[in-house]
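--- STAGE predict ---
source: upstream dedup step, 1 unique chain passed
mode: sequence only
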Amino acid sequence: QVQLVESGGGLVQAGGSLRLSCAASGRTLSSYAMGWFRQAPGKEREFVAAINWKGTTTYTDSVKDGINISRDNTKNTVSLQVDSLNAEDTAVYFCTAHNTRYYNGSLTSLRFGDAYAYWGQGTQVTVSS
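--- STAGE serialize ---
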């Protein structure tokens, strides 16, 4: 049973930063592509960032800078650093894990939620202006 647990969300002022973490049990994350998605109130879930098992990353086109996804294989975690937050970043952020070990598909494919088999419960990020 794979479980993903996000942490690090909270209330932050506009312009501030947050570092979200995703811890996994039941799976060694280093062999799998991982992603972060978010869902704002009244909006559909959207892709934020992904990292494949090789460590190559891809990010949403809607964010110019200030987002970085990384993994710590020694801790079996994946993190998302988000800087220069604004009110539009208010959302529940979800960590997700790909189903295929050593997936060698395109980075573009990792931008779609259908690519992932496991999802965390999400962590709320609220940005106050």
